[in-house]
Write a structure and sequence with these properties.
Elements lengths: L1 H5 L17 H9 L3 H34 L5 H36 L1 H15 L3 H5 L3 H43 L5 H44 L1 H6 L3 H53 L5 H42 L21 E8 L2 H6 L5 E8 L4 E5 L6 H8 L7 E6 L2 E2 L5 H6 L1 E5 L9 H6 L7 H10 L30 H15 L3 E5 L7 H15 L3 E5 L11 E6 L2 E6 L1 H7 L2 H8 L9
Parallel strand pairs: 3-8, 3-9, 6-7, 7-8
Antiparallel strand pairs: 1-2, 1-4, 4-5, 9-10
Helix pairs in contact: 2-7, 3-4, 3-7, 3-11, 5-7, 7-8, 7-11, 8-10, 8-11, 10-11, 16-17, 19-20
């Protein structure tokens, strides 16, 4: 039975991920698709439970009057059928409704609903532009994803469950009190008005402080995760105290929101307790006065006083539910600011997969500024740059830091869109093909190699998940990465099964680089980008794998970036960049003979590296 209800709502919908709407209720409805039917069924059960409880309350008052006045000999013959009906409602009807309500809430919705939200939002975020992740803490993004999923569930379910139950129950209680005597309903009406005014004053304030608290919590988590992620830097510079202060600042900000929230909670408890005491006193006093003057019978008093006590007890629960509702609304509003952002780079309508039969790459009149530079009208990172790379040609990009070399590669990978110009691969504009197929056709090894916190096997086969064991081992051999087979992690896993730690922290820089090279070897893409691919290797290891890199580059179009000019001197052509423009081109020998910028850079190298500009 549990399993059947748990399978009613698919936690991993296959629909293509879409940008969530930015309006609060549209955002909630967007993530509630597929779950609304179950929430309506849950709300219907909640309403029926409230109606049943009010009916039973009302009948208890009638039963008191009957017991006081009825003839004992004829009581069962006259009232037996109604007693049986109420007994069936109490013993069978209410439990069945409660079981159905509980199964819908706990089995169908509580687990699956937020998981659907996490899944859909995560899939959308995975396809976000690179600039999105460059502007945010990874821990902050993850925190907002997790807490927003739970908050959406709480808001949607509380509206469907709590509001339905409260409205039906209170209206039923009011009708029940008024049916005995109109005057007896007055304390309930007065209590409801004052209670509503308290909600109107208190709840929006809780919502606002909850939104601020959600953001403060995300900032605090982001700073803590940032410290742990960069723990080697913290220790190298002996800055534990500085990190404590950095994190404490965010903790103080979070604690400030908690104090405000708790003050509101205390005000809430004090005012509600006062209101409830006044309600019980007013109902009891008025009921006794009406009974002593013969206006109502004892059954009405027997119903009204317990009903007032019941509403008083419920009021604390209702207030907390409303407080939690608006607290979660605040969390959702905060999450919208991070999750409902458009992608800066999107596939064009009708984009097709890239086909690379030859591997020609052409940059045509490319101009590009990063967002802040563009908004401030500052100089372009790349300025009207044109460059054609023939199929199978190997070029080296040369230039000081900031010349635009890495930006050129990032634009080829379409991490950003161009300001003007086009980039073509075999005549296909990269902006008109799917991003997945574009990046699948380009193998990249960078100087900042971060590995997934998974096994060596997972990291290498990331280049081609369907690769065989023999192909993985061949890639390891070509990358001179035999050290892998002697690795052991803290869980006792060995060799290819050993885990490398977050960002590959358990490996040295050179070891990470060789794993990355093995990964790209396995990918075997027709276009290869080497961005300081051997910068983390010592001279001996670099010399050992240089021949393997030459093998890797055979038959591929290659773009190599290196500050150590000796590593790219053997390329077919060297392209010298300066301030976003190409200033020289030619072979190593031609450029030395020309006596221009490249020749000067070569002459001024210190230890084989370019000097800073």
């Amino acid at each position: 039975m549990f399993g059947w209800f748990e399978r009613r709502l698919d936690p991993y919908p296959a629909d293509p991920p879409q940008m969530p709407p930015q309006g609060l209720w549209r955002f909630i409805l967007h993530f509630s698709r597929g779950a609304k039917g179950f929430m309506l069924a849950m709300a219907a059960c909640s309403a029926l439970i409230a109606i049943a409880e009010v009916i039973l309350f009302g009948y208890m008052g009638e039963l008191v009057n009957l017991l006081a006045e009825a003839d004992r000999q004829n009581f069962w013959s006259t009232e037996g059928s109604r007693l049986i009906l109420m007994g069936v409602l109490l013993v069978i009807g209410l439990p069945v409704l409660q079981v159905l309500f509980s199964l819908l809430m706990h089995q169908t919705l509580m687990g699956n609903f937020p998981q659907r939200i996490r899944w859909q939002a995560h899939r959308y975020l995975l396809r976000q532009s690179m600039s999105y992740f460059q502007d945010e803490f990874a821990g902050r993004i993850a925190t907002k994803l997790m807490q927003t999923a739970l908050a959406v569930r709480e808001v949607a379910m509380k509206f469907m469950d709590v509001l339905t139950y409260v409205c039906v129950y209170f209206i039923g209680a009011l009708v029940l009190a008024a049916s005995t005597d109109g005057w007896l309903a007055l304390p309930f009406v007065a209590w409801a008005v004052l209670y509503g005014l308290l909600l109107w004053w208190l709840i929006p304030r809780i919502g606002r402080i909850s939104e601020a608290q959600a953001d403060a919590r995300a900032v605090m988590t982001g700073r803590v995760v940032d410290s742990y992620t960069n723990i080697s830097t913290v220790k190298l510079f002996s800055h534990s105290s500085r990190e404590e202060a950095y994190v404490r600042e965010s903790m103080d900000g979070f604690l400030g929101t908690v104090h405000v929230q708790m003050r509101l909670a205390s005000i809430q408890n004090i005012l509600i307790s006062t209101l409830n005491s006044l309600l019980t006193f007013a109902v009891t006093a008025l009921g006794l006065w009406l009974w002593t003057h013969g206006k109502i019978d004892v059954g009405a008093v027997a119903v009204a006083i317990p009903l007032a006590l019941r509403l008083g007890n419920m009021s604390h629960w209702i207030m907390w539910e409303f407080a939690m509702l608006f607290e979660n609304i605040g969390t959702v509003r905060d999450g919208i600011g991070s999750l409902s952002l458009p992608r800066m780079v999107t596939d064009a309508r009708g984009a097709r997969p890239l086909s690379v039969p030859e591997g020609q790459v052409e940059f045509s009149k490319v101009t590009f500024r990063y967002g802040e530079q563009a908004s401030q009208g500052r100089g372009a990172v790349l300025d009207d740059l044109s460059l054609t790379i023939a199929p199978g040609e190997r070029i080296g990009l040369v230039g000081r830091s900031g010349a635009g070399k890495s930006t050129l590669v990032n634009l080829l990978l379409r991490f950003h869109d161009l300001e003007t110009g086009r980039i073509l691969i075999d005549g296909q504009d990269v902006s008109q093909v799917t991003q997945e197929s574009l990046r699948a056709a380009i193998g990249v090894v960078t100087q900042d190699t971060s590995l997934l916190h998974r096994s060596i096997r997972d990291n290498i086969s990331y280049g081609r998940p369907d690769a065989s064991e023999a192909e993985i081992r061949r890639a390891i051999e070509l990358a001179e990465a035999d050290f892998i087979f002697s690795l052991t992690d803290s869980q006792g896993r060995r060799g290819l099964e050993a885990h490398v730690g977050e960002r590959g922290v358990k490996l040295s820089g050179g070891q990470r680089q060789r794993v990355a090279i093995a990964r790209v070897l396995l990918k075997d893409a027709p276009i290869l980008v080497l961005d300081e691919a051997t910068s983390a290797l010592d001279s001996e290891v670099e010399a050992a794998i240089q021949s393997q890199l030459d093998m890797l580059m055979q038959g591929k179009t290659v773009i190599a970036i290196a500050h150590r000019l000796s590593t790219i001197a053997r390329m077919d052509r060297l392209v010298v960049m300066e301030r976003g423009r190409i200033v020289e081109q030619g072979t190593h020998e031609e450029l030395l003979a020309h006596g221009g910028i490249y020749a000067g850079l070569w002459a001024r190298q210190s230890g084989g590296f370019l000097e800073a500009e």
